[in-house]
Structures are given as C-alpha cells and as structure tokens.
Design goal:
This protein is α/β, with parallel strands linked by helices. The protein has helices spanning 24-36, 58-70, 95-100, 112-122, 142-152, 185-191, 214-226, 229-232, 250-260, and strands spanning 12-16, 40-43, 74-79, 104-107, 126-128, 158-159, 169-172, 175-184, 204-208, 235-238, 264-266, 279-281, 284-288, 293-296. It has 2 domains: 12-152, Murein tetrapeptidase LD-carboxypeptidase, N-terminal domain (Rossmann fold, 3-Layer(aba) Sandwich), CATH 3.40.50; 158-296, Glucose Oxidase, domain 1 (3-Layer(bba) Sandwich). Helix content is 30%, strand content 21%. Strand 10 (235-238), helix 9 and strand 11 form a beta-alpha-beta unit.
C-alpha cells in the first residue's frame, strides 16, 4: 500500500458529501477553514443536495466521487461530513479509476465504508480525520489542526502522540506491527458478509464509536470477534467511544477485547472527539501496547 502525493499550499481540493446532507452554515465555515490552510476548495453538488437522509441521490454522490478522482486539477478529496449512505455507493464505484488516480482522501464516521473499500481494492493510504462541515465548522483545537496538516501536507514518521496529559491505557501488553485499518465500529460490523468486508488479517485494528449504549458496543464487538476479526488482527487500538468511557465499557472490553489476547491500547484521541488525531489508514505502524506507543514506520504493505 502506497502513500498518495502530499498536498501543498495552492492545491485544489474537492469537498463532497458521500453520506448525509450538509448544513449550509457549517459547510461555509468549514470551507473558510480549508481556505485558511492555503487550499482552494471545490464544493461539489452533493454538498448542496438533499435526498431524505442522504446528501442527494446515490447517482449525485457517486458522480461527485468519480469526478473528484478523475479531475487532474484536484489533488485531494475531503468528505464534508459523515451520517449515512457511503455504503450504498460501494458496488458502483469505479475502482480502476480510483486506483489510477490516487489522492489524499480524508473523512471518518460513515466514511469508514469508503476507507475500507479504497484501501483494500485500490491499494493506497487514506486518512481518518476531521471534516469541513463537522469538525472544522465548530472551530478546531490547535492539536487537531496540527495533526491534520502534518498528515496531508507531508509524509510523517515517528510517534503518533496523544494530547499532553492524556496517556494511553494498556489493555493487553505486547508488541505488534502491521498496517492500520478500521474506523467506526458500526461500519466495521456492517461490512461483514459483504464484498467489502473488513480485512483485519495481520493489521492493527483501530475502532471508535459515538453515542452507542454499552450493550450495543458489546454486540458489535462480539460480531467482530465471532467473525474472527479480532483474532486475525495483529493488534488493537481503541479510540473515543463518547459519551462512554473505559470504565463504562469495562465489561465488554475485558470479556471480548481482552480475551482476544492481542496487544491492545485504549484512549487514543481519535474519532468523534476533540481533539481528534488524523490517522493514515494503510500505513504500517509499530504498536507497543506495554509502553503505550504507536510508531509510524516508513514501510509499504
């Protein structure tokens, strides 16, 4: 798996909505934030469309993705927000087109479906990171912005660090190495049994979630476990599960995650949270769960 070419000031980036509809005020604020980074945003049709709980009909959202990847002037693609709907596009994506036009691609939440498909079928790194009509619309902490810019404007190496005074917690000690994969728990679970199923084999599996009761998180983790995904993973990183905490999730972590026996850490500031670390999905990392460190390696997979 290879890294797409980093962005540089002056580049054009497409902003599109592959999932839920955008709030116009939040979108405008987020677009201004992208401009402040020295980038030129192209706000696509899906960002101004609505089809029930979707950002326009499937054809509109699909066309935006294809146009953004095909346009040689577009150097990066930012999902405007999450919501629901990206999974509906997967059977119709032109993977050959995407494979031949690798670009910085950023988003999270429902965008997890696209990360899995692009990583696994097109072979290049994508970025689990903040979105214009969600995170950037509310203003972001310097930590979030620095992490985001460090990833999209360069090819970073070294440690992925949590904010100061927020140490990672060891769940299962041990060492593991592999490419990062994963994202939002409900999307990972929903991928099972489809042609776009999560491949966790030999990988460091990152998991985050938002606004789900502990029993629902338990159910989805159990589904991953019973499908063999936790056993196949080289290691596990747990991100934010707000408003749930490690204490309220102690039972399912101990009885499902811990029993998998893979090197595991928890508390990474990534997901539906602020501050929010940007992760390069597909990059090879070294996980030392005993010391609570994640190191980006300069290796391909």
């Amino acid at each position: 798996m290879f890294m797409p070419k980093p962005l540089k000031p002056g580049d054009t980036v497409a902003i599109l909505a592959p999932s839920g509809p955008c709030d116009s005020e939040r979108l405008a604020t987020g677009v201004d934030a992208i401009k402040s980074m020295g980038l030129y945003p192209w706000v696509m049709e899906s960002c101004h469309s609505r089809h029930g709980y979707l950002a326009g009909a499937d054809e509109i959202r699909l066309n935006d993705l294809h146009m953004a990847f095909a346009d040689k002037n577009v150097k990066g693609i930012f999902a405007a927000r999450g919501g629901y709907g990206a999974g509906r596009l997967l059977p119709y994506l032109d993977y050959d087109l995407i494979r031949k036009n690798p670009k910085i691609f950023v988003g999270y939440s429902d965008v997890t479906a696209l990360h899995l498909a692009i990583n696994q079928q097109c072979g290049f790194v994508t970025f689990h990171g903040p979105m214009p009509a969600a995170d950037f619309s509310r203003g972001v902490l310097a930590f979030t912005l620095d992490s985001f810019k460090n990833m999209i404007f360069g090819s970073p190496k070294g440690l992925i660090k949590n904010p100061a005074n927020t140490p990672l917690k060891t769940i299962v000690p041990g060492w593991a190495k592999g490419p990062l994969t994963g994202g939002n728990l409900c999307l990972l679970a929903a991928s099972l049994g489809t042609p776009f199923e999560l491949d966790a084999s030999g990988r460091i599996l990152f998991i985050e979630e938002i606004a789900e009761e502990p029993y629902r998180i338990d159910r989805m983790l159990l589904q991953l476990h019973q499908a063999g995904k936790l056993r196949a993973a080289a290691g596990i990183i747990l991100g934010s599960f707000a408003p749930e905490t490690l204490e309220t999730l102690e039972m399912c972590i101990n009885e499902i995650i811990k029993k998998a026996g893979k090197p595991t850490i928890a508390g990474l500031a990534c997901g539906h949270t602020s501050p929010n670390i940007t992760l390069p999905l597909g990059r090879v990392v070294e996980l030392d769960a005993g010391s609570g460190t994640i190191k980006l390696l300069n290796q391909t997979f």
